[in-house]
Design brief:
Number of domains: 4
Helix content: 25-40%
Distance between the termini: 27 Å
Order of helices and strands: HEHEEEEEEEHHHEEEEEHEEEEEEEEEEH
CATH topology of the largest domain: conserved putative lor/sdh protein from methanococcus maripaludis s2 fold
CATH class of the largest domain: Mainly Beta
CATH architecture of the largest domain: Beta Barrel
Structural class: alpha+beta
Radius of gyration: 39 Å
Number of helices: 7
Shape: elongated
Length: 402
């Protein structure tokens, strides 16, 4: 019984699996991902294939096209950044109020040049604590010297002499700690010596540039109250800029540290210095970093750039002259290597190739091919079946059915 909506089965609705070509496809399906057995042909053996088989298996071929080595690497896009090791950020060492800003954005500064002046009551407190620690250290040192003399005269015990020494050492360490905190806050040794001799306290603090560079950011404004650690200015030192680029997962497989990038608008090339080992969750791209090989005024920070990738390969036959462009569909993988089927009368031959990064429709082949080679772009499954030893299909013909 058939359901009301069911269509009766008809034998003509099913494909005829008795034809040689369908038997070949079934053999490939059963083979799955199994490796070559002893019955498979050698990797470089000629695969017999006549022109009559092309129609039944849907095989078509194209002639490889030449492409310059420098233009075959693929296009990458990215942004120019200042390396972290060339960036200095001035921040508030203590809480206070910005009294004045002494530089402007994009201004070149020298090492030690004043950048901003700060008014900080906390700085006064630190100076007071330091002067008190200094006085206590002097008092403890004098006491230790007296006890040392009295011990030598036999007036006091050794235990008292040792206690005086320890107290003097601890007081000296406390004074050094307070002095070092003031130096980290930005006071120079000359200012500290002057404060020590005069016992004066000053709330003014001048922030200076640690090295020569350019003012990139200046978030602080006069009259603004800032907490300790708040940024005041960002300075960029002179040096080669870096480029952070985005590459697809397929491109990242071919990119290596040391590869050359031809940067648009620059005479000197850039060299890849790092390739990330993870994908971006947002766009599934791989981030890489490149640095210009020479100092050149062709880039600006945050500039959007395009770069042409070129593999840094040693000189040899594969890198001299031209590479070859083939349709991406012509390249397949087997046993961890990449192959193409090259037409050789009276058949095909599987040729191992080395590929670069292409644009998607075409793949550059760096080695393995020569001028005039004709590669298969359709019907690869049938040729591969014959290559794996599953047999060669016979030409398509009309099947006689009983």
């Amino acid at each position: 019984m058939l359901h009301s909506g069911a269509r009766p089965f008809h034998k003509d609705a099913m494909p005829d699996f008795r034809t040689p070509f369908y038997r070949l496809l079934m053999g490939l399906a059963l083979l799955g991902g199994v490796v070559l057995t002893s019955s498979a042909q050698e990797a470089n053996a000629l695969i017999p294939w006549s022109a009559d088989l092309n129609k039944g298996a849907g095989v078509s071929t194209v002639v490889v096209r030449a492409a310059a080595v420098g233009a075959q690497g693929g296009l990458l896009q990215g942004t120019v950044v200042l390396p972290a090791q060339q960036t200095d950020k001035l921040s508030m060492p203590v809480a206070g109020v910005v009294q004045s800003v002494l530089v402007s954005p994009m201004q070149a500064v020298r090492a030690g040049q004043p950048v901003a002046r700060i008014m900080s009551p906390q700085l006064v407190e630190w100076q007071r604590e330091w002067l008190m620690a200094q006085a206590q250290a002097r008092l403890a040192q004098n006491k230790a010297q007296r006890d040392e003399q009295m011990f030598a005269d036999g007036i006091v015990a050794e235990h008292r002499r040792n206690e005086s020494r320890a107290q003097s050492d601890m007081a000296t360490l406390a004074e050094r700690e307070r002095r070092q905190a003031l130096r980290l806050a930005g006071l120079s040794d000359a200012e500290l010596n002057a404060a020590s001799s005069s016992a004066s306290l000053s709330p003014l603090l001048t922030l200076v540039a640690p090295a020569a560079g350019t003012v990139l950011e200046l978030p602080a404004t006069p009259g603004q109250r800032l907490e300790a650690g708040a940024p005041v200015a960002t300075l960029g030192r002179g040096g080669a800029l870096a480029i952070e680029l985005q590459a697809s997962a397929a491109q990242a497989q071919a990119l290596r540290v040391g590869d050359i990038l031809v940067v648009q608008g620059c005479k000197a090339p850039a060299r890849v210095t790092a390739v990330s080992n993870q994908l971006s969750a947002a766009n599934q791209s791989v981030q890489l970093r490149a640095v210009l090989t020479a100092r050149e005024d062709c880039l600006r920070i945050n500039q959007f750039v395009q770069a042409q990738w070129q593999a840094a390969r040693p000189a040899g036959p594969a890198t001299q002259g031209a590479a070859w462009l083939v349709p991406t569909a012509a390249v397949f993988q087997h046993g961890g290597r990449q192959y193409v089927f090259v037409r050789e009368q009276p058949g095909f031959r599987a040729v191992a190739v080395t590929t670069g990064v292409g644009s998607g429709a075409d793949t550059p082949v760096l080695s393995g091919l020569k001028a005039g080679d004709e590669v298969a772009v359709q019907g690869l499954i049938a040729i591969k079946g014959a290559w794996l030893g599953l047999g060669v299909p016979t030409p398509a013909a009309k099947d006689a059915r009983p």
